[in-house]
Amino acid sequence: MGILMILAGFVLLFFSGDWLVKSSVQIARYLKISTLVVGLTVVAFGTSAPELLVSLKAVFDGVPDISVGNVIGSNIANIALVLGLVTIILPIRVSKGSSVLFDWVVMMGASLLFFIFAQNNLIEFYEGVIFLIIIVIYLTYSVIKSRKQVNKLDDILEKPTLKIKYAIGLLVLSAVGLYYGSSLLVNGVVIVAEGLNISERVIGVSVVAFGTSVPELATSIMAAVKKETAISIGNIIGSNIFNLLAILGITSVIKPIGVSDLLISVDIWWMIGVAALLLLAMLPFKNSIINRWKGAVLMCTYIIYMVSLFII
User: Fold this and answer.
1) pTM more than 0.85
2) DSSP letter at 82?
């Protein structure tokens, strides 16, 4: 039964990811917002919704290791697995004028802040509020900056090819598909994992995190195939920022989240290390290309992390 749920979830998430890319690109053209910012906002929020639902459920079910482990594992998977696989399929050029470096700094800053907040083994209410304030400031800045750039260069965006009401409808449909697809997938992988007697921490950072990262994987692969590479990079970095600031922020404001010692001493360091590896992959900044061999390094890093979880 678990295997069937996993397969059904994969199919639904894959097609929903395609619809999400199509609708968000169209909406970006109507609003005169760059596709990179759409990746950092609309697409990132849509594909991060599964992490929010899983985190809230896990905290209220008394399994915080799954809640926090899901966020940490998803952030590792988004860079090492998703970006690694996407760049193996299609090398990605980082635009010289893009804000990817700034967004990376925000992501790393959020990661370090999370590490500091977790030192007492608890993400408290006021810390969640700080996370939410930062994400609001970041999104506001990103949208304003993008609008200014587009106003200076009127030909940056192509004209929309889909009526706005259909684009919004497709966006809503894709969000529904991501929700139910993620539910099927997460429930399926948890059933399978529990049958193998795996710890809650390992389930959170591996199985559940992989399941909730499938929207990013499906969306980014479809974006790469359509050569919308700004959304591929923006979606991944934006999703990681959302996971740390919005997901943990909302969850801890509703109910404080416990963080185990192993998550602090092992998994958070892997998350920070993978983020640093992404920065190296984007070098040199003047003419950056995340090519296939860099993607292979990211993929190998993810495999090593997964193996280490089950042998240590």
Assistant:
1) no
2) I
